[in-house]
């Protein structure tokens, strides 16, 4: 084989190697990407907001509402404190009672005892310290702003379960909304010397506000599990629900 022929063979071999090396490198990158993909997908999957959700008290499962593309997860009647019944009547709210298994939060809780009103319906009972959560979040780490709704009714009637307060319209704009049921009327505001004597603080008549503070503590402790940001919470309401935040601002407890 002469030198000129050898040179042509070497040149051809070099040309083939130049073409082949990028292809080999590309195959290696694709192989590397394919081996890494399941890990990345698993990490994303673990962040998805799916039922059941762990909150104070145990596991809960809700339901989905809203049109396709604007779905909102709804959790109704979630306890944020123990039932204020029996020895706990006219007392500060106590920590929520735990439950076993998965609690189906698909039905609204009872509205607190109150006079009959034409615009308020639903079951009524003293076991009423519950709230409703509406979240459009798809992942638990979205940190959406949170808005806590306090219903109206002059501190005497009303419930967070009323239809105007349970539509998904506001959450569909990108906020986690919480509606709170609380004691009201005599059950929430009765002040008597005898009740004050039973209190370690020597006061009575502020049970409604203590319920609201307990609900805000629940939000701080649990709302991240629904994709909400506990550091971005707005309290709003109408009528009596508009006056309650003003009163709570005056309390160091809130």
Layout: helices, strands, pairs:
Blueprint: H1 3-46, E1 53-55, E2 58-61, E3 63-65, E4 72-79, E5 102-104, E6 130-135, E7 144-150, E8 176-180, H2 185-189, H3 193-198, H4 207-222, E9 228-237, H5 240-249
Describe this protein's structure.
- This protein folds into 2 domains: 1-46; 53-249, 3-Layer(aba) Sandwich (Rossmann fold), CATH 3.40.50.1820.
- The chain is an alpha/beta fold and 254 residues long.
- The termini are far apart.
- It has helices spanning 3-46, 185-189, 193-198, 207-222, 240-249; strands at 53-55, 58-61, 63-65, 72-79, 102-104, 130-135, 144-150, 176-180, 228-237.
- The chain has a 6-stranded mixed sheet. A 3-stranded mixed sheet has the order 1-2-5, with no helix packed on it.
- The relative contact order is 0.14.
- The protein has 5 helices and 9 strands.
- The radius of gyration is 29 Å and the shape is globular.
- The model is unreliable at 1-43 (pLDDT under 50).
């Amino acid at each position: 084989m002469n030198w000129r022929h050898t040179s042509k063979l070497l040149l051809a071999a070099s040309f083939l190697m130049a073409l082949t090396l990028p292809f080999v490198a590309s195959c290696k990158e694709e192989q590397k990407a394919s081996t890494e993909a399941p890990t990345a997908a698993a990490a994303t999957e673990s962040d998805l907001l799916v039922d059941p959700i762990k909150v104070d008290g145990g596991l809960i499962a809700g339901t989905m509402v809203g049109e396709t593309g604007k779905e909102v997860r709804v959790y109704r009647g979630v306890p944020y404190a123990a039932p204020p019944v029996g020895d706990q009547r006219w007392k500060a709210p106590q920590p929520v009672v735990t439950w076993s298994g998965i609690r189906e939060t698909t039905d609204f809780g009872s509205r607190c005892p109150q006079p009959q009103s034409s615009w308020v319906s639903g079951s009524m009972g003293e076991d009423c310290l519950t709230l409703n959560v509406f979240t459009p979040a798809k992942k638990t780490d979205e940190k959406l702003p949170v808005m806590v709704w306090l219903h109206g009714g002059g501190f005497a009637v009303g419930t967070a379960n009323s239809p105007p307060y349970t539509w998904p319209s506001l959450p569909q704009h990108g906020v986690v909304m919480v509606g709170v049921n609380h004691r009201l009327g005599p059950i929430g505001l009765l002040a008597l010397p005898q009740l004050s004597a039973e209190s370690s603080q020597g006061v009575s008549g502020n049970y409604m506000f203590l319920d609201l503070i307990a609900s805000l503590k629940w939000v701080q402790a649990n709302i991240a599990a629904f994709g909400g940001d506990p550091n971005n919470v707005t309290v709003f309401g109408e009528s009596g629900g508009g006056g309650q935040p003003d009163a709570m601002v005056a309390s160091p407890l809130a």
